[in-house]
Amino acid sequence: MPAASITANLAAVKDKIAVAARAAARDPASVRLVAVSKTRPAEAVREALAAGQRHFGENRVQEALRKFPALREDYPDISLHLIGPLQTNKAEEAVRLFDVIEVLDRPKLAIALAKAMEKTGRRPALYIEVNSGDEPQKSGVPRAGAGEFICHCRDEMKLPVTGLMCIPPAGEDPARHFSALAALARAHGLPHVSMGMSGDYEAAIAGGATSVRVGSAIFGQRG
Ligand SMILES: *Cc1c(COP(=O)(O)O)cnc(C)c1O
Questions:
Q1: Residue 36 phi, psi dihedral angles, 5° rounding
Q2: Nearest CA to ligand 1 atom 6
């Protein structure tokens, strides 16, 4: 897909989000689109910004650091989401740069984020990533321990946990993973549910997503 179609792709994705939301008897405005700009050049992000997009997702701290500080000078209202694994030694940089960190999945990272927040005075929203298929190679807190981990981070450590995130197993019908994550968020009174990518964001909306993370359907296939 040529870069010139980013604006058109964004409009098409937004239309499909609205259709999927209405089909689920939901307000289209209740679904936030996070444009996943990992591996894309800053010019591609600028085209999306010019089309009105403000929420962006990146999966590496260093890559986001190279692109976003300059973009924020022109667009201070950008909201940047970290959606890839975070090492504890990058926690401080992440807290300084991101508005939402969607990948909290272990006690050591919770401690590192708490320290970074205390040091910087910044408190980005945190989502807890759940390994919804309990896949050994994937990050995310195991399903069975998710409830306890939510309470530990939010109630004991007083971290600003406001949502859950998952990436369902590839090659499986994601629907039951989506509804399980939404149910877990409801049970704990968490308002945000981040799930659904280019291939399945409509199903995620049917399952209760409040935030979808869409990359290739907006920016084209990653090279
Ligand atoms: C890359 C990525 C996405 C976007 O994937 P697309 O299939 O390009 O839409 C969403 N979420 C996470 C966690 C990702 O790493």
A1: -85, 110
A2: 215
